[in-house]
Design a protein that fits this description.
single chain, mainly alpha, 2 domains, 11 helices, disordered C terminus
Length: 316
């Protein structure tokens, strides 16, 4: 008996497919950048990124469909709501340490999803949000659709005869990814970013040196919430609906190590084991900053060479 076997590789040359993949990759790259700020720079294990995305997306859609806001006005307002949610989450949970904070964040993200599933009159429940009830009002993404049509016209004028419908969203998403990456790079090198690294290395030492670590961690969480809100906006535009199942909290092990924007690709061998090895300086187990001894400091913390191991000699 001969069984027919059909195999097609058309998806390799399907531009629309790869543009859709690129949009989703950019959206989750934004989420990863927010986690990078929390986990990589500040040392907080945050599993609540899906909650920030959901709050941003639902706030934007509700403001447009229920409150009559314009799409463009709803974006900054929804971002502020997501930041407020991040502060509300952080005020009690940031007093917890390590694994307990991670458990609290994933629980709060799941709480957001369950509320979205059950608040039918506000969030649409399991049906989600896409257009105003009864079709009497505009869909929340109508303003974006108009802008997307304009961008398609620009692409056609540049020689792309028939651009895919998601091509404008792909461009905008990756512009945000590049902007967020450059912003985090600037933060990393700023005095504020050096304090975050001090908290990551040894929170007690940073606190002893006069830094209000709780406030810095709260600020880091608020910025990650803002980045997550924008990722939620873009996911809502990509799917043309806001549904609770699209924002399920998932805890993933990132193979690439903290503090690495390039992940596995950052290392020429792509060695995951190399990335996951703990990196500690043998001569300073409680060092709070990686800077040359005697370097000028703008944030009031001593240079790394002036911080000695616990039980060792004091600064000289």
């Amino acid at each position: 008996m001969i069984l027919p076997l059909g195999l097609t590789l058309n998806f390799f040359t399907d531009t629309g497919f790869w543009i859709g993949v690129g949009v989703l990759a950019g959206i989750y790259a934004l989420v990863a950048l927010g986690l990078q700020l929390n986990v990589g720079y500040t040392g907080m294990t945050n599993f609540g990124a899906a909650g920030f995305m959901a709050v941003g997306a639902y706030a934007m859609a509700i403001l447009v469909l229920k409150a009559g806001f314009s799409f463009w006005l709803s974006l900054p307002v929804a971002m502020l709501i997501a930041i407020g949610f991040g502060l509300l989450v952080g005020l009690p949970s940031l007093r917890l340490r390590a694994d307990y904070f991670a458990i609290a964040t994933i629980a709060l993200a799941e709480t957001v999803r369950i509320i979205a599933q059950n608040a039918d009159s506000l969030t649409g429940g399991n049906q989600g949000l896409f257009c105003a009830e009864g079709g009497a009002g505009a869909c929340y993404n109508d303003a974006w659709t108009n802008l997307s049509t304009t961008i398609e016209g620009w692409l056609q004028s540049l020689g792309w005869t028939n651009p895919e419908s998601l091509a404008p969203l792909l461009i905008v998403v990756w512009l945000f990814v590049v902007g967020a990456t450059l912003g985090l790079r600037f933060i990393q090198k700023s005095p504020w970013g050096r304090v975050l690294r001090a908290i990551r290395e040894d929170e007690d030492a940073a606190e002893a040196l006069g830094k209000h670590t709780f406030a810095y961690k709260l600020q880091s969480l608020a910025i990650a919430a803002a980045i997550g809100a924008f990722a939620g906006f873009f996911l809502a535009l990509d799917l043309a609906t806001v549904h609770p199942l699209d924002y399920e909290p998932v805890a993933r092990q990132l193979l690439g190590g903290a503090r690495r924007r390039g992940g596995l690709l950052d290392h020429p061998r792509g060695d995951a084991v190399h990335r996951l090895r703990p990196r500690r300086h043998p001569d300073r187990s409680t060092a709070v900053l990686h800077r040359r001894p005697g370097a000028d400091r703008a944030d009031g913390l001593p240079a790394a060479g002036d911080v000695r191991q616990a039980g060792g000699d004091g600064p000289r």
